[in-house]
Every structure is written in C-alpha cells, then in structure tokens.
Amino acid sequence: MKHKKQVEKVIALFLIELLLFIPLYVSDVYAVKPTISNINVEESYDSAIVKWQTDVESNSFVDYGITSSIPLSKSSSVLSRNHELELFELSTGQKYYYQVRSCSGPDCRFSGLEDFKTLDAPAPSKITDLKEVSKTTNTVLIEWDESDSDYFGKYIIYRNDEKVGEVSTKS
Q: 156 has which bridge partners?
C-alpha cells in the first residue's frame, strides 16, 4: 500500500510537470521567426521613412547611423505585418547605414546592413523687399521679408563678396 502511494505521488508530480512545462516546449518548437521582405526607404532632406513587411505579427526596430556600427535605434512595440518607422533630425546629403529588425515573442529576424542617403536641402527662396532702415557712419540697419523655407536657420550678409554679418532674424 505504501509503495502504491509513492507511485501515485510520482505520477501526480509527473503530470503537474507536464502541465507546466509542455506549453514551453511546444511554443519553442512551433515558434516562428518573422520573415522580413519589401524593405523600402523614402528619404527627404532631414528625415527618412523605413518600411517593410513580415509574414507574422511582430514589433519594429530600425538600427541606424552614419557608420556601419549603427549606434542609433528607433522602435515600435505595436505588433504588425506592415512596418513603418520615421527617422527624424537627419543631416542633409548624408549617407546612413541601417538594419531593420522584427521580433515575434523571443524570436527575432534581422535584415542585412543597407544604406540610404538623405536628399540635399533645396535652395531657400529668395528674400524680398530688402530696404535700408537707418544708417550711420559705421553701421547700417536693414530689413527684409523672410524666406518661407522651413529649414532655413540664418542669414549671411555679404558686401562686395565679403561676409560682413550673420543673423538668425530678419533685421
């Protein structure tokens, strides 16, 4: 009788172990690494949108940088099959290296190392209505209508092909 109770205890422990650990074994066996396809980059002069697809719902990562060590990263934990991440504050006319990554649970897939180049910034529009406001022997105060270019950060003033000033406002 004592032997029968010990056998029942061993069987009970075995069944409990099966219930606890079989889902882990099964999930490991049936886990699917996402397959990455259709990688595309839409560049502008100061940003880029990286798009790709996966065959299973997964999260999104883009590792990027101006060297192949790709030290920067952008991510989204939203699970999707169609991925899109926008990279901001990029330098104009700069080559960037990048790699996309998607994970479904613990299983991740990486693309190869690729690169793109941001566009050169377009020339700003011409300033208009340049006028002298006042002048003295040593100075002149001028003003103008600002350029409508959104990335334009400063004005450099030349006189006879020589730089004489730099300002970040119009007067």
A: 166
Q: Report how far apart, in Å, the C-alpha atoms of 142 and of each of 72, 154, 159 are.
A: 43, 15, 13
Q: Which string of b and e fits 27-61 if b means at least 16 CB within 10 Å? A: eeeeeebbebeebebebebbebebbbbbebebbbb
Instruction: Report d(CA 63, CA 97) in Å as an integer.
Output: 8
SS3 83: strand
Tell me which DSSP letter residue 47 carries.
Answer: -
- Please give the structure tokens belonging to residue 40: 């595309």
Place of tokens 């504050």: 89
Strands of 13-47 (E only): list them: 36-43
User: If you ran DSSP here, which 8-state letter would residue 17 be given?
Assistant: H
Kindly give the confidence (pLDDT) of every residue in the chain, 171 residues in length, as a single tens digit, with 9 standing for 90 and above: 666 677 677 666 666 675 666 555 544 445 689 999 999 999 999 999 999 999 999 999 999 999 999 999 999 999 999 999 999 999 999 999 999 999 998 999 999 999 999 999 877 777 788 888 998 988 888 888 877 776 666 777 888 888 888 877 654
Give CA separation, 150 vs 33, 117, 124, 129, in Å. Answer: 42, 21, 9, 19
Name residue 61's amino acid.
Answer: F
